[in-house]
Design a protein that fits this description.
With 480 residues, this protein is an alpha+beta fold. It contains 11 helices and 27 strands. The structure holds zinc ion.
Protein backbone atom coordinates (compact mmCIF):
# COMPACT_ATOMS: atom_id res chain seq x y z
CA UNK A 1 0.00 0.00 0.00
CA UNK A 2 1.36 3.41 -0.95
CA UNK A 3 0.19 6.31 1.16
CA UNK A 4 1.50 9.86 1.53
CA UNK A 5 0.71 9.66 5.24
CA UNK A 6 2.49 6.31 5.78
CA UNK A 7 5.53 7.75 3.97
CA UNK A 8 5.47 10.85 6.18
CA UNK A 9 5.27 8.70 9.32
CA UNK A 10 8.02 6.39 8.07
CA UNK A 11 6.00 3.26 8.82
CA UNK A 12 4.82 0.39 6.65
CA UNK A 13 1.11 -0.44 6.71
CA UNK A 14 1.91 -3.64 8.65
CA UNK A 15 3.98 -1.83 11.29
CA UNK A 16 1.30 0.81 11.86
CA UNK A 17 -1.43 -1.84 11.95
CA UNK A 18 0.41 -3.68 14.75
CA UNK A 19 0.97 -0.42 16.69
CA UNK A 20 -2.74 0.48 16.52
CA UNK A 21 -3.90 -3.05 17.40
CA UNK A 22 -1.60 -3.02 20.44
CA UNK A 23 -2.82 0.39 21.57
CA UNK A 24 -6.52 -0.44 21.16
CA UNK A 25 -6.52 -4.02 22.44
CA UNK A 26 -9.04 -4.82 25.14
CA UNK A 27 -11.69 -2.42 23.77
CA UNK A 28 -14.56 -3.05 21.36
CA UNK A 29 -12.97 -1.30 18.42
CA UNK A 30 -11.84 2.13 17.32
CA UNK A 31 -9.29 3.48 14.91
CA UNK A 32 -6.46 5.80 14.06
CA UNK A 33 -7.81 8.42 11.62
CA UNK A 34 -5.39 10.72 9.77
CA UNK A 35 -5.80 13.26 6.99
CA UNK A 36 -3.61 15.68 5.10
CA UNK A 37 -5.64 18.28 3.21
CA UNK A 38 -4.34 20.86 0.74
CA UNK A 39 -6.62 23.85 -0.05
CA UNK A 40 -6.49 26.67 -2.52
CA UNK A 41 -9.26 29.20 -3.05
CA UNK A 42 -9.57 32.46 -4.94
CA UNK A 43 -12.45 34.95 -5.04
CA UNK A 44 -13.26 37.74 -7.49
CA UNK A 45 -15.68 40.06 -5.72
CA UNK A 46 -17.32 42.75 -7.86
CA UNK A 47 -14.34 42.70 -10.19
CA UNK A 48 -11.79 42.97 -7.37
CA UNK A 49 -9.42 40.06 -6.87
CA UNK A 50 -9.17 38.98 -3.22
CA UNK A 51 -6.11 37.48 -1.54
CA UNK A 52 -5.94 33.77 -2.38
CA UNK A 53 -6.27 31.36 0.52
CA UNK A 54 -3.72 28.54 0.69
CA UNK A 55 -3.50 25.93 3.43
CA UNK A 56 -2.09 22.52 4.24
CA UNK A 57 -3.76 20.95 7.25
CA UNK A 58 -2.41 17.71 8.69
CA UNK A 59 -3.26 15.70 11.75
CA UNK A 60 -4.94 12.70 13.26
CA UNK A 61 -6.82 11.21 16.17
CA UNK A 62 -7.15 7.89 17.93
CA UNK A 63 -10.52 6.70 19.17
CA UNK A 64 -11.12 3.69 21.34
CA UNK A 65 -14.57 2.13 21.60
CA UNK A 66 -15.38 0.88 25.10
CA UNK A 67 -19.03 -0.14 24.86
CA UNK A 68 -20.75 3.20 24.19
CA UNK A 69 -17.82 5.20 25.65
CA UNK A 70 -15.28 6.59 23.18
CA UNK A 71 -12.10 8.07 24.67
CA UNK A 72 -10.42 10.18 22.00
CA UNK A 73 -6.99 11.77 21.55
CA UNK A 74 -6.26 14.37 18.83
CA UNK A 75 -2.84 15.45 17.50
CA UNK A 76 -1.84 17.97 14.85
CA UNK A 77 0.75 17.23 12.17
CA UNK A 78 2.35 13.96 11.08
CA UNK A 79 5.26 13.82 13.57
CA UNK A 80 5.99 10.23 14.68
CA UNK A 81 6.39 11.19 18.37
CA UNK A 82 2.94 12.86 18.43
CA UNK A 83 1.39 9.73 16.95
CA UNK A 84 3.24 7.55 19.48
CA UNK A 85 2.10 9.78 22.37
CA UNK A 86 -1.53 9.52 21.22
CA UNK A 87 -1.37 5.72 20.88
CA UNK A 88 0.31 5.49 24.28
CA UNK A 89 -2.28 7.71 26.00
CA UNK A 90 -5.24 5.82 24.60
CA UNK A 91 -3.70 2.44 25.55
CA UNK A 92 -3.77 3.57 29.23
CA UNK A 93 -7.53 4.23 29.21
CA UNK A 94 -9.13 1.50 31.28
CA UNK A 95 -11.64 -0.71 29.51
CA UNK A 96 -15.23 0.52 29.93
CA UNK A 97 -17.80 -1.24 32.08
CA UNK A 98 -20.23 -1.67 29.19
CA UNK A 99 -20.72 -5.25 27.96
CA UNK A 100 -18.62 -6.34 25.03
CA UNK A 101 -20.49 -6.07 21.78
CA UNK A 102 -19.41 -7.90 18.66
CA UNK A 103 -19.37 -5.35 15.92
CA UNK A 104 -20.08 -6.72 12.49
CA UNK A 105 -17.93 -4.67 10.16
CA UNK A 106 -19.53 -4.50 6.76
CA UNK A 107 -16.41 -5.60 4.95
CA UNK A 108 -13.46 -4.11 3.23
CA UNK A 109 -13.78 -0.92 1.23
CA UNK A 110 -14.42 -1.54 -2.47
CA UNK A 111 -11.45 -1.86 -4.80
CA UNK A 112 -13.08 0.34 -7.40
CA UNK A 113 -13.36 4.01 -6.52
CA UNK A 114 -16.64 5.92 -6.82
CA UNK A 115 -14.73 9.01 -8.06
CA UNK A 116 -11.43 9.98 -9.61
CA UNK A 117 -8.42 9.70 -7.29
CA UNK A 118 -6.26 11.91 -9.52
CA UNK A 119 -4.39 14.82 -7.92
CA UNK A 120 -6.76 17.82 -7.73
CA UNK A 121 -3.78 20.10 -8.44
CA UNK A 122 -2.32 17.77 -11.11
CA UNK A 123 1.18 18.58 -9.87
CA UNK A 124 1.22 22.18 -11.16
CA UNK A 125 2.86 25.02 -9.24
CA UNK A 126 0.52 27.22 -7.25
CA UNK A 127 1.24 30.40 -9.25
CA UNK A 128 0.44 28.58 -12.52
CA UNK A 129 -2.78 27.21 -11.05
CA UNK A 130 -3.71 30.65 -9.70
CA UNK A 131 -3.24 32.23 -13.14
CA UNK A 132 -5.65 29.70 -14.69
CA UNK A 133 -8.20 30.26 -11.94
CA UNK A 134 -8.01 34.07 -12.14
CA UNK A 135 -8.59 33.87 -15.92
CA UNK A 136 -11.66 31.73 -15.32
CA UNK A 137 -13.04 34.06 -12.64
CA UNK A 138 -12.60 37.15 -14.85
CA UNK A 139 -14.18 35.34 -17.80
CA UNK A 140 -17.25 34.35 -15.73
CA UNK A 141 -17.55 37.89 -14.32
CA UNK A 142 -17.55 39.50 -17.76
CA UNK A 143 -19.86 36.81 -19.18
CA UNK A 144 -22.42 37.64 -16.46
CA UNK A 145 -22.23 41.39 -17.16
CA UNK A 146 -22.66 40.81 -20.93
CA UNK A 147 -25.87 38.82 -20.43
CA UNK A 148 -27.95 41.55 -18.78
CA UNK A 149 -27.38 45.28 -18.34
CA UNK A 150 -29.12 45.09 -14.95
CA UNK A 151 -26.25 43.00 -13.50
CA UNK A 152 -24.85 45.24 -10.76
CA UNK A 153 -22.53 42.89 -8.92
CA UNK A 154 -20.91 39.47 -9.47
CA UNK A 155 -19.08 37.43 -6.83
CA UNK A 156 -17.40 34.28 -8.03
CA UNK A 157 -15.17 31.83 -6.19
CA UNK A 158 -13.18 28.70 -7.02
CA UNK A 159 -11.88 26.40 -4.28
CA UNK A 160 -9.68 23.38 -5.02
CA UNK A 161 -8.79 20.77 -2.41
CA UNK A 162 -7.20 17.36 -2.21
CA UNK A 163 -7.25 15.09 0.82
CA UNK A 164 -5.10 12.08 1.70
CA UNK A 165 -6.83 9.88 4.23
CA UNK A 166 -5.52 6.94 6.25
CA UNK A 167 -7.50 4.78 8.66
CA UNK A 168 -5.99 1.99 10.74
CA UNK A 169 -8.63 0.04 12.62
CA UNK A 170 -8.44 -1.82 15.93
CA UNK A 171 -9.05 -5.02 13.93
CA UNK A 172 -5.85 -4.32 11.97
CA UNK A 173 -7.35 -3.26 8.66
CA UNK A 174 -5.57 -0.36 6.95
CA UNK A 175 -7.39 1.85 4.44
CA UNK A 176 -5.99 4.70 2.43
CA UNK A 177 -7.26 6.96 -0.33
CA UNK A 178 -6.93 10.33 -2.01
CA UNK A 179 -9.94 12.49 -2.83
CA UNK A 180 -9.95 15.63 -5.00
CA UNK A 181 -12.63 18.31 -4.70
CA UNK A 182 -13.45 21.43 -6.69
CA UNK A 183 -16.02 23.98 -5.61
CA UNK A 184 -17.47 26.77 -7.72
CA UNK A 185 -19.77 29.48 -6.30
CA UNK A 186 -21.34 32.38 -8.18
CA UNK A 187 -23.66 35.10 -6.88
CA UNK A 188 -25.24 37.69 -9.21
CA UNK A 189 -27.07 40.88 -8.14
CA UNK A 190 -29.58 42.57 -10.48
CA UNK A 191 -30.81 46.13 -9.94
CA UNK A 192 -33.81 47.61 -11.76
CA UNK A 193 -35.06 51.02 -10.61
CA UNK A 194 -35.24 50.82 -6.83
CA UNK A 195 -35.54 47.01 -6.82
CA UNK A 196 -32.64 44.68 -6.12
CA UNK A 197 -32.54 40.86 -6.29
CA UNK A 198 -29.67 38.42 -6.00
CA UNK A 199 -29.32 34.74 -6.77
CA UNK A 200 -26.54 32.20 -6.38
CA UNK A 201 -25.55 28.76 -7.65
CA UNK A 202 -22.79 26.45 -6.50
CA UNK A 203 -21.38 23.00 -6.88
CA UNK A 204 -18.68 20.95 -5.20
CA UNK A 205 -17.63 17.75 -6.99
CA UNK A 206 -14.73 15.28 -6.94
CA UNK A 207 -12.99 17.05 -9.83
CA UNK A 208 -9.39 17.90 -10.66
CA UNK A 209 -8.72 21.54 -11.56
CA UNK A 210 -8.62 20.88 -15.34
CA UNK A 211 -11.99 19.13 -15.11
CA UNK A 212 -13.31 22.33 -13.51
CA UNK A 213 -11.71 24.55 -16.20
CA UNK A 214 -13.17 22.27 -18.90
CA UNK A 215 -16.67 22.62 -17.42
CA UNK A 216 -16.96 26.26 -18.65
CA UNK A 217 -20.29 25.62 -20.40
CA UNK A 218 -21.78 24.35 -17.14
CA UNK A 219 -20.40 27.34 -15.22
CA UNK A 220 -21.91 29.76 -17.75
CA UNK A 221 -25.23 27.90 -17.48
CA UNK A 222 -25.09 28.49 -13.70
CA UNK A 223 -24.66 32.23 -14.36
CA UNK A 224 -27.63 32.14 -16.77
CA UNK A 225 -29.78 30.49 -14.09
CA UNK A 226 -28.74 33.11 -11.49
CA UNK A 227 -29.76 35.94 -13.84
CA UNK A 228 -33.05 34.26 -14.74
CA UNK A 229 -33.97 33.64 -11.09
CA UNK A 230 -33.04 37.16 -9.95
CA UNK A 231 -34.85 38.65 -12.95
CA UNK A 232 -38.03 36.68 -12.18
CA UNK A 233 -37.88 37.71 -8.54
CA UNK A 234 -37.75 41.39 -9.61
CA UNK A 235 -41.36 40.86 -10.74
CA UNK A 236 -42.40 38.87 -7.63
CA UNK A 237 -45.44 39.88 -5.59
CA UNK A 238 -45.95 39.26 -1.84
CA UNK A 239 -47.16 35.71 -1.14
CA UNK A 240 -50.37 34.82 0.66
CA UNK A 241 -50.17 32.16 3.36
CA UNK A 242 -52.60 29.54 4.65
CA UNK A 243 -53.10 25.84 5.24
CA UNK A 244 -55.19 25.14 2.12
CA UNK A 245 -52.38 25.28 -0.45
CA UNK A 246 -51.15 22.34 -2.46
CA UNK A 247 -47.36 22.50 -2.87
CA UNK A 248 -45.24 21.20 -5.76
CA UNK A 249 -41.48 21.03 -5.14
CA UNK A 250 -39.13 21.03 -8.12
CA UNK A 251 -36.62 18.21 -8.74
CA UNK A 252 -33.20 17.81 -7.10
CA UNK A 253 -32.25 20.25 -4.37
CA UNK A 254 -35.68 21.90 -3.92
CA UNK A 255 -37.74 18.99 -2.56
CA UNK A 256 -34.52 17.15 -1.74
CA UNK A 257 -33.74 19.60 1.05
CA UNK A 258 -37.12 18.80 2.56
CA UNK A 259 -36.38 15.07 2.24
CA UNK A 260 -33.00 15.51 3.93
CA UNK A 261 -34.33 17.65 6.79
CA UNK A 262 -37.79 16.25 7.38
CA UNK A 263 -37.06 12.57 6.80
CA UNK A 264 -33.33 11.80 6.56
CA UNK A 265 -32.26 13.15 9.96
CA UNK A 266 -35.07 11.21 11.62
CA UNK A 267 -33.47 7.96 10.38
CA UNK A 268 -30.06 8.49 12.03
CA UNK A 269 -29.33 5.65 14.45
CA UNK A 270 -27.76 7.73 17.24
CA UNK A 271 -31.09 9.47 17.93
CA UNK A 272 -32.85 6.08 17.89
CA UNK A 273 -30.32 4.63 20.33
CA UNK A 274 -31.10 7.54 22.69
CA UNK A 275 -34.84 6.93 22.21
CA UNK A 276 -35.48 10.49 21.03
CA UNK A 277 -35.88 10.17 17.23
CA UNK A 278 -38.99 11.50 15.52
CA UNK A 279 -39.31 8.17 13.68
CA UNK A 280 -38.70 6.17 16.90
CA UNK A 281 -40.27 2.72 16.87
CA UNK A 282 -41.83 3.20 13.44
CA UNK A 283 -39.90 0.48 11.58
CA UNK A 284 -42.51 -1.64 9.80
CA UNK A 285 -45.05 1.19 9.90
CA UNK A 286 -46.30 3.53 7.20
CA UNK A 287 -44.40 6.84 7.38
CA UNK A 288 -44.99 8.05 3.81
CA UNK A 289 -47.53 7.65 1.02
CA UNK A 290 -47.56 4.58 -1.23
CA UNK A 291 -45.07 5.06 -4.04
CA UNK A 292 -42.53 6.86 -1.82
CA UNK A 293 -39.26 4.88 -1.75
CA UNK A 294 -36.18 6.45 -0.17
CA UNK A 295 -32.53 5.34 -0.18
CA UNK A 296 -29.41 6.51 1.62
CA UNK A 297 -26.50 5.66 -0.69
CA UNK A 298 -22.80 6.48 -0.34
CA UNK A 299 -21.97 4.61 -3.57
CA UNK A 300 -23.37 6.99 -6.23
CA UNK A 301 -20.66 7.50 -8.90
CA UNK A 302 -19.06 10.98 -8.83
CA UNK A 303 -21.57 12.31 -6.30
CA UNK A 304 -20.47 14.84 -3.74
CA UNK A 305 -21.69 12.73 -0.81
CA UNK A 306 -20.03 9.46 -1.89
CA UNK A 307 -16.96 7.91 -0.25
CA UNK A 308 -14.95 4.74 -0.77
CA UNK A 309 -14.95 3.99 2.96
CA UNK A 310 -16.53 5.90 5.80
CA UNK A 311 -14.59 7.59 8.61
CA UNK A 312 -14.53 4.38 10.65
CA UNK A 313 -13.13 2.43 7.67
CA UNK A 314 -16.35 0.64 6.66
CA UNK A 315 -17.69 0.34 3.12
CA UNK A 316 -20.62 2.58 2.16
CA UNK A 317 -23.85 0.90 1.14
CA UNK A 318 -27.10 1.55 -0.66
CA UNK A 319 -29.52 1.37 2.27
CA UNK A 320 -33.29 1.21 1.81
CA UNK A 321 -34.94 3.56 4.35
CA UNK A 322 -38.56 3.73 3.12
CA UNK A 323 -40.02 1.00 0.90
CA UNK A 324 -43.26 2.06 -0.84
CA UNK A 325 -44.14 4.22 2.18
CA UNK A 326 -43.08 1.75 4.90
CA UNK A 327 -40.09 2.54 7.14
CA UNK A 328 -37.58 -0.33 6.83
CA UNK A 329 -34.09 0.83 7.81
CA UNK A 330 -31.83 3.23 9.68
CA UNK A 331 -28.55 5.04 9.05
CA UNK A 332 -25.90 3.56 11.39
CA UNK A 333 -22.29 3.89 12.44
CA UNK A 334 -20.57 1.26 14.62
CA UNK A 335 -21.81 2.66 17.94
CA UNK A 336 -25.46 3.04 16.92
CA UNK A 337 -25.48 -0.34 15.13
CA UNK A 338 -24.16 -2.00 18.31
CA UNK A 339 -26.56 -0.14 20.62
CA UNK A 340 -29.58 -0.94 18.44
CA UNK A 341 -28.40 -4.41 17.37
CA UNK A 342 -29.04 -3.38 13.79
CA UNK A 343 -26.99 -3.64 10.59
CA UNK A 344 -24.00 -1.33 10.22
CA UNK A 345 -24.58 0.73 7.07
CA UNK A 346 -21.19 2.44 6.61
CA UNK A 347 -22.44 5.92 7.63
CA UNK A 348 -19.85 6.83 10.31
CA UNK A 349 -18.74 10.29 9.17
CA UNK A 350 -16.86 13.22 10.76
CA UNK A 351 -15.99 16.76 9.75
CA UNK A 352 -12.26 16.31 10.35
CA UNK A 353 -9.67 14.38 12.36
CA UNK A 354 -10.57 16.64 15.31
CA UNK A 355 -14.07 15.17 15.49
CA UNK A 356 -15.58 11.83 16.47
CA UNK A 357 -17.68 10.06 13.83
CA UNK A 358 -21.47 9.82 14.09
CA UNK A 359 -24.24 8.44 11.84
CA UNK A 360 -24.57 10.85 8.93
CA UNK A 361 -26.28 10.89 5.55
CA UNK A 362 -24.26 10.83 2.30
CA UNK A 363 -26.53 10.90 -0.79
CA UNK A 364 -30.19 10.59 0.24
CA UNK A 365 -32.80 10.29 -2.48
CA UNK A 366 -36.37 9.36 -3.33
CA UNK A 367 -36.97 7.13 -6.35
CA UNK A 368 -38.49 8.78 -9.42
CA UNK A 369 -42.24 8.45 -9.99
CA UNK A 370 -44.25 8.11 -13.20
CA UNK A 371 -45.95 11.52 -13.46
CA UNK A 372 -44.56 14.53 -15.31
CA UNK A 373 -43.99 17.91 -13.69
CA UNK A 374 -46.63 19.41 -16.04
CA UNK A 375 -49.16 16.81 -14.86
CA UNK A 376 -48.43 17.64 -11.20
CA UNK A 377 -48.82 21.40 -11.81
CA UNK A 378 -51.86 20.84 -14.03
CA UNK A 379 -53.66 18.97 -11.23
CA UNK A 380 -53.30 21.80 -8.67
CA UNK A 381 -56.28 24.16 -8.14
CA UNK A 382 -54.60 26.52 -5.67
CA UNK A 383 -50.98 26.17 -4.70
CA UNK A 384 -47.33 27.04 -5.05
CA UNK A 385 -44.55 25.66 -7.21
CA UNK A 386 -41.36 25.85 -5.10
CA UNK A 387 -38.33 25.79 -7.39
CA UNK A 388 -35.66 26.75 -4.89
CA UNK A 389 -35.21 26.85 -1.13
CA UNK A 390 -32.45 28.40 0.92
CA UNK A 391 -31.52 25.40 3.04
CA UNK A 392 -33.76 24.44 5.91
CA UNK A 393 -34.14 23.50 9.53
CA UNK A 394 -35.53 20.56 11.41
CA UNK A 395 -35.96 19.63 15.05
CA UNK A 396 -34.80 16.01 14.87
CA UNK A 397 -36.74 15.09 17.98
CA UNK A 398 -40.15 16.49 16.95
CA UNK A 399 -39.53 16.24 13.17
CA UNK A 400 -41.03 19.71 12.70
CA UNK A 401 -39.37 21.46 9.77
CA UNK A 402 -39.56 24.84 8.11
CA UNK A 403 -38.09 25.89 4.75
CA UNK A 404 -37.97 29.30 3.09
CA UNK A 405 -38.69 29.43 -0.63
CA UNK A 406 -36.39 31.67 -2.67
CA UNK A 407 -37.88 31.00 -6.12
CA UNK A 408 -41.63 30.30 -5.97
CA UNK A 409 -44.57 30.66 -8.39
CA UNK A 410 -48.30 30.62 -7.82
CA UNK A 411 -50.41 27.85 -9.34
CA UNK A 412 -54.04 28.75 -10.10
CA UNK A 413 -56.40 26.20 -11.69
CA UNK A 414 -53.53 24.16 -13.11
CA UNK A 415 -51.70 27.17 -14.58
CA UNK A 416 -48.43 28.73 -13.41
CA UNK A 417 -48.97 32.35 -12.31
CA UNK A 418 -46.88 35.14 -10.81
CA UNK A 419 -43.58 34.76 -8.97
CA UNK A 420 -44.10 35.33 -5.26
CA UNK A 421 -41.88 36.40 -2.38
CA UNK A 422 -41.81 35.44 1.27
CA UNK A 423 -43.15 31.87 1.08
CA UNK A 424 -42.23 29.54 3.93
CA UNK A 425 -43.30 25.92 4.07
CA UNK A 426 -43.62 24.05 7.37
CA UNK A 427 -44.63 20.53 8.28
CA UNK A 428 -43.83 17.41 10.29
CA UNK A 429 -41.59 14.86 8.57
CA UNK A 430 -43.31 11.85 10.10
CA UNK A 431 -46.77 13.12 9.01
CA UNK A 432 -46.43 15.30 5.90
CA UNK A 433 -44.87 12.58 3.74
CA UNK A 434 -48.03 10.47 4.11
CA UNK A 435 -49.76 13.14 2.00
CA UNK A 436 -47.58 13.11 -1.10
CA UNK A 437 -49.97 12.59 -4.01
CA UNK A 438 -47.56 12.62 -6.93
CA UNK A 439 -43.88 12.11 -7.76
CA UNK A 440 -42.55 12.98 -11.22
CA UNK A 441 -40.09 11.23 -13.52
CA UNK A 442 -37.63 14.16 -13.60
CA UNK A 443 -35.22 12.72 -10.99
CA UNK A 444 -32.12 14.80 -10.25
CA UNK A 445 -29.39 14.47 -7.65
CA UNK A 446 -27.94 17.75 -6.35
CA UNK A 447 -24.37 18.84 -7.04
CA UNK A 448 -24.24 20.81 -3.80
CA UNK A 449 -25.19 20.44 -0.17
CA UNK A 450 -23.69 20.64 3.31
CA UNK A 451 -25.21 19.00 6.37
CA UNK A 452 -24.66 20.39 9.86
CA UNK A 453 -25.23 18.24 12.94
CA UNK A 454 -23.95 18.83 16.47
CA UNK A 455 -21.42 21.36 15.21
CA UNK A 456 -20.00 19.12 12.49
CA UNK A 457 -20.40 19.86 8.80
CA UNK A 458 -20.09 17.21 6.05
CA UNK A 459 -20.78 17.30 2.29
CA UNK A 460 -24.01 15.60 1.23
CA UNK A 461 -26.39 15.49 -1.70
CA UNK A 462 -30.06 14.93 -1.97
CA UNK A 463 -32.20 13.82 -4.87
CA UNK A 464 -35.75 13.30 -6.09
CA UNK A 465 -38.18 14.03 -8.87
CA UNK A 466 -40.70 16.87 -8.54
CA UNK A 467 -43.33 16.01 -5.92
CA UNK A 468 -46.79 17.21 -4.96
CA UNK A 469 -48.08 17.51 -1.38
CA UNK A 470 -51.86 17.42 -0.90
CA UNK A 471 -53.83 20.32 0.55
CA UNK A 472 -53.36 20.44 4.33
CA UNK A 473 -50.09 18.48 4.36
CA UNK A 474 -47.97 21.62 4.78
CA UNK A 475 -48.52 24.98 6.39
CA UNK A 476 -47.62 27.82 4.05
CA UNK A 477 -46.48 31.14 5.46
CA UNK A 478 -46.65 34.28 3.33
CA UNK A 479 -45.69 37.93 3.39
CA UNK A 480 -48.89 39.55 2.05
ZN1 LIG B 1 -28.59 17.78 7.62
Amino acid sequence: MSSVILNALGHSADELSKMVQTSLQGGNGGELFMTGTRHFSQTLSNGILQQPSVALIKGGSVRRINGQETPFVVFDGFAAHDLNNALNLISKVPQGKAPTVNLTASGIAPKTSYYTQNDAFEGVELDVLQAYVVDLLREIDSYARQQDTRVANVDVQVAIAGQDKLIVRADGRVLSEYRPKCQFVVNVVLIEGDKKESSSENFGLPFTYTELLNARDDLRAMVDRCIEKASNNLTAIPAKGGDDFEVVFGPGFSGGVVLHEAVGHGFEGDFHSKDIASFQGKIGERVAAKGVTVYEDGTVANARGSYNFDDEGNAPEKTLLIDDGIMVGLINDELSAAALNMPLTGNGRRESYKHKPMPRMSNTYMEAGNATLDELIGSVKKGYYVMELNGGQVDIVSSKFVQNGTVVREINNGQLGAYVKGVSVAGKGNESYKHIIGVANDFEISKNGMCGKEGQSVPVTTGQGSMLFAKGALKVGGSA
